[in-house]
Amino acid sequence: MSMRSCYLTVLDRELHYTEWGAADLHPNSPAIVMWHGLARTGRDFDDIAAHFSATHRIVCPDTIGRGLSQWSPKPDEEYCLDFYAKLATAFVDALGLKEFDWIGTSMGGAIGTVAAAGSLKGRIRHLVLNDNGPSLASAAIERIRSYAGSPAAFDRVSELETYLRTVYKPYGWQTDAQWRRMTETSVRRLPDGRVTPHYDPNMVRQFINQPDDYERWNEYDAVTAKTLCLRGKNSDLLLPETVVAMQQRGPRCTLLEVPGVGHAPCLNVPEQIEPIARFLAS
């Protein structure tokens, strides 16, 4: 089924999202919320969303300050996991989603954890954490913050694509067409005519105002949803010892380690999508 581009205002903030599958499917048809990473957009899920679209209703929002969603007028207050979880709750409520599964890449996984432990507890049936856990390596956070907080600008879109191929090389295998789509769905033009990634640089103030925002063991321990953790074998963000602890406490996640990938798996090939499909069917 084709993708639709949609807008929805919740908590007085306009969110953009793409929707796949039929909203008027049988009321019992399963729904999946797919939430992207820190400096990315919901379009990162195009491949996996298309895979599920024949049987599921899929929604892939752009977080506030990213993609086509509104930038926050209160960045110090709203660019943080707790507010993102509030937005997520208002978002699924407005869409009439009672119960659903959640696939979250990096930051999207953290939002899912916070929500699954609190405002959406009992409503998230399956929680998929894509290279995310309740404690993240500080060196990797600093690496991500360094490029996300000062986004590069280029004269040409092709130069931006080259940059993204370098920054996101740990994602692993992508075709030329997928790299081009990633570029074209995450680009904005500056007043001087140059192009840059499509997000508000102020979103990195999360790491200044709330430096421990991604330390979420209390929330993880409160999660009751079935939980799957995908970890890129070469990830510098989600450390092996963290995953061991995740398997021993809280929801006792199932682990899928993805070879040849760092932070984070793209969820764009059968080797990554099919295990997720089996997990969601369990």
Strand arrangement within the widest β-sheet reads: 1-2-4-3-5-6-9-10
What portion of the residues fall into strands of 2 or more residues? 15-25%
The CATH class designation is Alpha Beta
Extended strand count: 10
Overall 3D shape:
globular
CATH homologous superfamily title: Alpha/Beta hydrolase fold, catalytic domain
Q: What is the averaged pLDDT score?
A: 95
Helical residues, percent: 25-40%
Q: Give the SSE order as H and E letters.
A: EEEHEHHEHEHHHEEHHEHEH
Total helical segments? 11
The helix/strand class is alpha/beta
What is the CATH architecture assignment?
3-Layer(aba) Sandwich
Low-confidence stretches: none
Q: Please compute the radius of gyration using only Cα atoms.
A: 17 Å
End-to-end CA span: 24 Å
Q: Fill in the CATH topology.
A: Rossmann fold
Main sheet specs: 8 strands, mixed
What is the total domain count? 1
Entry keywords:
globular; Rossmann fold; 34% helix; eight-stranded mixed beta sheet; two-stranded antiparallel sheet; 10 strands; alpha/beta; 282 residues
Summarize the structure.
With 282 residues, this protein is α/β, with parallel strands linked by helices. The protein has 11 helices and 10 strands.
3D structure, described in words:
- The structure is a single chain.
- With 282 residues, this protein is of the alpha/beta class.
- The chain has a single domain, classed as 3-Layer(aba) Sandwich (Rossmann fold), CATH 3.40.50.1820.
- Helices cover 34% and strands 20% of the residues.
- The protein contains eleven helices and ten strands.
- It has helices spanning 46-52, 75-78, 81-94, 107-117, 138-148, 157-167, 176-184, 206-209, 217-222, 240-248, 270-280, and strands spanning 4-10, 13-20, 31-35, 57-61, 100-105, 124-130, 187-189, 195-197, 226-232, 254-258.
- The strands form two sheets. An eight-stranded mixed beta sheet has the order 1-2-4-3-5-6-9-10, with helices on both faces.
- Helix 3 (81-94) packs across helix 4 (107-117) and helix 6 (157-167) packs across helix 7 (176-184).
- The chain is globular.
